[in-house]
Amino acid sequence: MSVMKIGYKGKNYELGFTRNTVVAMERQGFDINEIGSKPMTMIPLFWSGAFAAYNKGIKRSLIDEIYENMRNKAGLIEALTELYAETLNTLTDEPDEDKGNATWEIVR
Q: Whole-prediction pTM value?
């Protein structure tokens, strides 16, 4: 999966999502469809969720500080949305032909 790399105060961070971090975000109330209607709630959840997969132990205060200092926040949210969608697509992507040996059928 893709990651976003950002730098802040001489330190580099990788942001992205995994199935586990998306589940954790959803349990906290995150809904990507509500970013426009509840931005004060959803954007901070989205932003902090993007740190969860690759930045263990980072403090929420630092995550918030980094966001406050980011430029082009609209572009940032758009890029994070693409990373998020990529993770969601892993639920419905077809496996490689070599590994796709599970089958299903409806039996009446």
A: 0.86
Produce one character per residue of 5-32: b if its CB has 16 or more CB atoms within 10 Å, e if not.
eeeeeeeebebbbeeebbeebeeeebeb
Amino acid at 20: N
Q: Which residues of 40-77 are buried (b: 16+ CB within 10 A; e: fewer)?
A: eebbebbbbbbbbbbeeeeeeeebeebbeeeeeeeebb
Band of the pLDDT at 86, cuts 50, 70, 90? very high
What pLDDT shows up at residue 51? 97
**For the chain, how many residues are written?**
108
**For the chain, how big is the Rg over CA atoms in Å?**
17
For strand 4-8 and strand 11-15, is the pairing parallel, antiparallel, or unpaired? antiparallel
